[in-house]
Amino acid sequence: MKLDNIYKEEKKSTYAKLSEIIITMTSRPSGLIGLSILVFHIILAFISPYIAPHDFKAIDPTLMLQAPSAEYWFGTDDLGRDVFTRTILGGRTALTITFFGSLIALLWGGLLGIFCGLVGGKIDDVVMRIVDAFLSIPWILAMLLIVSLLGTSTEVLIPALGFFYGKGIVRVARAATHDVIAKDFIVSARARGHSNFSIIWNEIIPNVRDAILVEGAMRWSWMLLGFSSLSFLGFGVSPPTPDWGLMISNARGLMSFAYWAVIAPIVGLSSLIIGINLTADAFAKALGIDRSTKAPV
Amino acid sequence: MLFLIIKRILLGFITLFIVSIITFVGTEVLPGDACTTYLERQAFGEQLEACYRRLGLNVPAYERYVSWALNAIQGDFGYSLSGEMPIKDVLGPRIKNSLVLASAAIFIGIPIALILGIITALWRDKLPDVAISTVTIFAMTIPEFISATLLILIIAIWLEWLPGIVIVPTDVSFLELLPNIILPVVAIAMIMTAHMARMVRSSVIQVMASEYVQMAILKGVPYWKMVFKHVLPNALLPAINVVALTIAWLLGGVVVTEVVFNYPGLGRLVIESISNRDLPTVQALAIILASIYVSINLLADLLTLMLNPRLKTLQIRK
Known about the structure:
The structure holds two protein chains of two kinds.
Chain A: H1 2-10, H2 14-26, H3 29-51, H4 83-119, H5 121-136, H6 139-150, H7 154-181, H8 184-191, H9 196-233, H10 244-252, H11 260-286
Helix pairs in contact in A: 2-11, 3-4, 3-11, 4-5, 4-7, 4-9, 4-11, 5-7, 6-7, 7-9, 8-9, 9-10, 9-11, 10-11
Chain B: H1 2-28, H2 34-39, H3 45-55, H4 61-73, H5 87-122, H6 127-141, H7 144-158, H8 174-208, H9 211-219, H10 223-261, H11 266-275, H12 279-307
């Protein structure tokens, strides 16, 4: 009877588990705020092309650096483009690139980490040395090298960010694998004669999934930070693409008299990064993972 | 113990070796080379050949790597291509300027982070904790270029208290530099302090929940005596490693901050040399920044080892 109950508990549907996690996340104010901001940004990213009041690349010299008005809610920039339109469109680029980048990072980082943790020995040593070496190159230098090597198109930026931000996930996935690998169920799976692949898929992944997902959520916010820093430095997406980093760096020189053109993208980018961070924190707490003692490598 | 230290140092050198290969290969496959960039439209025939010979680019890549690595160990990184100056001379003042910036930020940041972290941990979930934690989340997550831009907008442009952009020659004396670096230092210290304060907080909370602290409370040890004698020494030890990693991670942030403030340090050199395709300088910068990262971590490991007798018999935590 009792065993039966435990079995039922284990077999909860994915949907039930998900709604439980979301309820736990939103039970704290920080999680609720974070998730609302993130959902708001995601919805905005989907609908912004349909609600944008002006053309994001329409240049009009007669409308240069207009203060906010009823027609131009957030004013205009140095080329007479509508700042409100560009701000609400700016999230699309950032969210799309960093979301798919994080997916790639999760996939390769997670799988390589699990593989290294499981196999151990020489292969593990060599891979971890290389990961360490990549970790010790400052992210900005590495990203600049990759971008100047391959260009700044979306097809390059997504895998480049995904590759570079995955190396930290390798460490986390490996450590999480080490934690479960000595457990009895792995030993018994081995004794039953399961292959490495079957052990990874059926035994390890369900047990390390949470840790890797939390790490991936955190990487997402750092990737967003890295991506917009690149744009800000002029190595990210190229103009006239509406992008927050690019908008801030363009409007910065004139901010002593046209502060609105720099404030709008700053609010957009900051709120999205804070939203992702708070959500990731709440997600970690809901899954019972403490990540406040980890350094941002 | 000695064996462990030697092992860590060796691993550090292996890491640097791999970094040097990665950057060498990375810069090698960049399209275009120094000569085509330098000569621009005249990059063909006789002149191109002469340029290759002059810069030694006509020998195979692996030979160049070996000779470059041998010289780099002795501190000679060759010549910068854009300025045609020895990289040593270019780097020297830049390293000094960046060190001033970083160490000022660290010296301001660490004490503030300790105090904030301890306050938030001891008054956990009370008003001081909620207030400080909210501020640290903001300070920690907002990108450097945004906080730096906002600092310039508010303090330099609206309030006109301090210069917003550093306009000084590269080799300026420390006192002349001081008013110029306040804003950049604040911008860097803000993020670093917020990170460290959060780590100190969770570390102190963990120790406060441990059994020997409960025991001390039950024995009636006065609260503050317990905090300073039993909690803090144990809580701050594991924080050292994390703080080291944070400092190393901030090297990237320093680059962005230097660009925003137009500060003549290593960070701006990174951007300049990559834009100019000045590959020898890029390689030198990669090795130097990676060495800083490796040595900070090594130092933290050794410090933890020396301060914690229990770890002497165990393997070093990585």
